[in-house]
Amino acid sequence: MTRQSDESQNAIGRWEVQLRKGVLEFVILLSLSEREQYGFELISGIAKRAAIDVPEGTLYPLMLRLAKDGLISSRLAEGDGGAPRKYYVLTVQGRELLQGMIPAWSKLAGSVDSLLPGVSS
Amino acid sequence: MTPSFADPAARHRWNAYFSEVGDLLSRAGADAAELRNDLQAHVADSMAASPGGSELERLEAALSRLGRPIDYLRPLLADELIERGTRTYSPVTIARGISYAVMAGSGRAATALIFGIGYLLLAIFAGMAVLKPLWGEHVGVFRNADGTISAGIVARSDGARELMGWWSIPIALLLAALLYVMLTKGLRALRHRR
């Protein structure tokens, strides 16, 4: 592989990481809108379904901030093995924000898609 | 929440990782213990969900997916330290927060750079006020022989004339104080907007 294509791949990789980080908050709220989930369940679900391949640790400080902002809350409940687990759930405020984010995301995704080569407006 | 490890190497690896997490989070304030517990529970769940391999291999895989603590905790530390610094008007805490923000990269770096320059200017004004009585010939605002103006802590050229004299002390102090309040309030507003 040439040096130029290596640089190009690196640039694409960096852009992709930033893009994924940018939508993490939205993806977390979407996942929690379905049902309450504990940390590992939520994160592995996001990694599988949304192919958001970021270090899993990135999610926890973000969850802490979402909780501080009143968008999610947590409660301790018994897990599968009996040890208590922390389950995250959307608050009313979080659900309202998500309802506003969904059309904004659809509009953005649609307008970017329309600029892709081979897609007529 | 530490799992009961049969393999001492796995226990050692766990302890080393969470000791690093603990060291970093000791600067983060009230939520540190909660975050550490969340991360430990995550690694324990991640190991339990791994299909096979030795205890150490499953732990290594789980820690690798979690990432290096410094990488994912930097933005949090930046936010926490800047918040604490702006609340208590502590320049040292703010400077530490800004250094984490710069290392965290992306848009934070540009913001941190702007505020860093602001705080540098502040330090220059404060330095002028302190150094003027000790090194008066080189501190202040000067008109050079060629008509240009030099200000701050300067190497005074021949024929340069001082314009403000001792007034440069209260003016530098006033500018430093104004800049400090503006920068601190700016950082605080920025944090609330995020």
What does this structure look like?
The complex is a heterodimer of chains A (121) and B (194). The longest helix of chain A has 32 residues, at 3-34. Chain A is α+β, with helices and mostly antiparallel strands and 121 residues long. Chain A has a 3-stranded antiparallel sheet with strand order 1-3-2. Helix content of chain A is 64%, strand content 13%. Chain A has 4 helices and 3 strands; from the N terminus they run αβααββα. Chain A is globular and about 55 Å long. With 194 residues, chain B is mainly alpha-helical. Chain B has 2 domains: 1-67, no CATH class; 119-193, no CATH class. Chain B is built from 7 helices and 3 strands, in the order ααααααβββα. In chain B, strands 2-1-3 form a 3-stranded antiparallel sheet, with helices on one face. In chain B, a hairpin with a 5-residue loop joins strand 1 and strand 2 (149-153). In chain B, helix 1 (8-25) runs parallel beside helix 4 (69-88) and helix 2 packs across helix 3. The longest helix of chain B is centred in the middle third of the chain and has 26 residues, at 106-131.
Q: Could you state the oligomeric state of the chains shown?
A: heterodimer
| Computed CA radius of gyration of chain A, to the nearest angstrom | 18 Å
The helix content of chain A, as a percent range, equals 55-70%
Structural class of chain A: alpha+beta
Tell me the CATH superfamily of chain A: Winged helix-like DNA-binding domain superfamily/Winged helix DNA-binding domain
Gross morphology of chain B: elongated
Rg over C-alpha atoms of chain B, rounded to the nearest angstrom: 25 Å
Helix run count of chain B: 7
Order of helices and strands of chain A: HEHHEEH
Number of domains of chain A: 1
